[in-house]
Specification:
disordered N terminus, three-stranded parallel beta sheet
């Protein structure tokens, strides 16, 4: 009987720091329920450094939910917490309660605040919190006054800011940005843009920048970037802004992910601005030609890695970029939206001297897929590895035929190896 008891309570014998770490990885509701079942660490949850409150789908009444959060914060014993997370995207919670809980987190000397709610009212103490290093604010409503940010804002230790606004970011988000002198990572999402207001990012400490626009009218605004230490840059959603790059001298990696491009010249200007990057990942969906073939492209003299997905991986668009990327070493094609093969007029320089790895994701083994692969194998003189990852829709017999066909193609590079990864969902 004693051996059974020992096995059942084996978790209790773990060191307290391991138990605390385990509990910190789960929502606070589950952490409390788990703790009270043990005699040894019944009150351990009160000392956790991470407080995470998530949606409770089965609780329709907001009052019990609010009472639970109140009780946890009231009973909490620690003098400081690392993370305070409040994710109530489905549950309606009063603005006043959210504001009160943020104040309590600040009282506990919180370092990271992560808020995702339907209704939000930000307490004044938040804008002068000297200990805060990360702030994430996502609001699932159309309240225009949700970010009534006072001036001045003083957040001397804030390194990471993630914010989603419904419009007019210059009147709210930029006040937060300008009040964070040590900011290194910024994510800004604009749900709806309908003005020509100019956005100026003059942030010398910034290393990572992500900008997304979900919807906008056919109005072009200007985005000015003066970020000399920026290493990673992402633009996504709808492209409806003219980007002016004053200083991106340290840019290493750029990512584009668009489902709408309002004007083609905006894409050309954006590419010019990031032409010094070493890595480019570019995804477009349901867009005929992201770059008109008669549009001049910049020379990507430092580009080593290129990933193309969707319509921008069509053969004409792809070779348009390859012709201007003489140092390219790694190329990845993902699910090209293509329906025929058109052989380029000349072989891109990178294929003759630099391109060593080629990856084709979600290959369906269509005629034009095979024609593209035959061309690449036959003309890439220093290619070392070709990796084919098949589409889930491709039948195993189709995979076998594709593999057999690839092995017949002549290779310009004697050292080229073909790696075939089947991904079929068929049994």
């Amino acid at each position: 009987m004693s051996s059974i008891s020992e096995n059942v309570d084996r978790l209790t014998c773990l060191p307290e720091e391991i138990i605390s770490h385990i509990l910190s990885l789960i929502p606070i509701r589950l952490a409390v329920q788990t703790s009270i079942l043990s005699k040894k660490w019944r009150y351990t949850w009160m000392l956790l450094k991470k407080l995470a409150f998530n949606d409770y789908p089965y609780i329709l009444d907001r009052d019990p939910l609010s009472k639970f959060v109140d009780s946890v914060l009231e009973l909490y014993k620690t003098s400081h917490i690392e993370v305070f997370r409040l994710h109530f995207s489905d549950n309606w919670v009063r603005k006043s309660n959210v504001s009160k809980w943020i104040n309590e987190a600040i009282r506990l000397n919180v370092r990271e605040i992560d808020i995702q709610v339907k209704l939000l009212e930000l307490p004044l103490r938040l804008f002068t919190c000297k200990r805060l290093t990360k702030l994430r604010l996502i609001v699932n409503c159309n309240d225009p006054d949700v970010f009534n940010v006072p001036s001045p804002v003083i957040l001397p230790c804030l390194k990471t800011l993630e914010i989603s606004v419904n419009g007019k970011p210059c009147t709210n988000a930029f006040i937060l940005i300008n009040g964070s002198p040590t900011l290194e990572s910024l994510f800004l999402e604009v749900a709806w843009r309908d003005d020509e207001e100019e956005y100026n990012f003059n942030i010398p400490t910034l290393k990572r920048l992500e900008l997304r626009t979900r919807k906008c009218l056919s109005v072009i605004n200007k985005v000015v970037l003066n970020v000399p230490n920026l290493e990673y840059f992402l633009v996504g959603g709808v492209l409806c802004s003219l980007f002016v790059m004053k200083d991106l001298s340290n840019l290493v990696e750029a990512t584009f992910s668009f489902y709408e491009i309002r004007f083609s010249h905006l894409m050309s200007e954006l590419l010019k601005g990031i032409s010094e990057a070493k890595s480019l990942s570019w995804s477009t969906s349901n867009i005929d030609l992201p770059i008109p073939l008669n549009s001049p492209l910049p020379k990507f003299l430092n580009l080593k890695r290129l990933e193309l997905k969707g319509s921008c991986s069509r053969w004409l668009s792809m070779f348009h970029v390859l012709e201007n990327s003489c140092e390219l070493e790694h190329l990845c094609i993902d699910e090209p939206e293509e329906f025929c093969w058109i052989e380029p007029q000349q072989i891109p320089t990178c294929m003759l001297s630099k391109l060593t790895t080629l990856k084709f994701k979600r290959c369906e083994g269509r005629k034009w897929d095979l024609q593209f692969l035959e061309y690449m194998l036959g003309n890439s003189e220093v290619l070392k590895t070709l990796t084919i990852i098949t589409s889930e829709s491709l039948h195993p017999k189709g995979e076998m035929r594709l593999c057999a066909q690839l092995l017949k193609f002549p290779r310009a590079s004697r050292s080229c190896e073909i790696h075939f990864v089947g991904n079929s969902t068929y049994n």
